[in-house]
């Protein structure tokens, strides 16, 4: 089981509160987690990653175990702590401004 924490605007869009728990078939990667998340909450399709390129949307970042995973390839295995459910995958809304 994978634990995912979403920013409040995505939780609101999906009508969920708190952490999401997902069962992943095969290896836990950003792609497999996002596929499972979008399958369970279809309203999130296109909100986290682009429909065509599958790349993460600007102003969203992925973190796990104190590391920024945002620039890793989508098929890179997630840390063991995330794959085992001990630590969550954090999807964080970035803030910009000047």
State the gist of this model:
The protein has 98 residues and is of the alpha+beta class.
How is the secondary structure organized here?
Blueprint: E1 2-5, H1 8-14, E2 20-22, H2 30-40, E3 60-64, E4 67-68, H3 80-83, E5 89-93
Parallel strand pairs: 1-5
Antiparallel strand pairs: 1-2, 3-4, 3-5
Characterise the protein shown here.
The chain is of the alpha+beta class. The chain has a single domain, classed as Ubiquitin-like (UB roll) (Roll), CATH 3.10.20. It is built from 3 helices and 5 strands, in the order βαβαββαβ. It has helices at 8-14, 30-40, 80-83; strands spanning 2-5, 20-22, 60-64, 67-68, 89-93. Strands 2-1-5-3-4 form a 5-stranded mixed beta sheet, covered by helices on one side. β3 and β4 form a beta hairpin. It is globular, with a radius of gyration of 13 Å. The model has no long low-confidence stretch (mean pLDDT 93).
CATH homologous superfamily grouping = Beta-grasp domain
CATH C-level class: Alpha Beta
Question: How much of the residues is beta strand, in percent?
Answer: 15-25%
Number of domains: 1
Give the count of helical stretches: 3
Structural class: alpha+beta
Shape verdict: globular
Task: Return residue spans where pLDDT drops below 50 for at least 5 consecutive residues.
Answer: none
SSE order, as H and E? EHEHEEHE
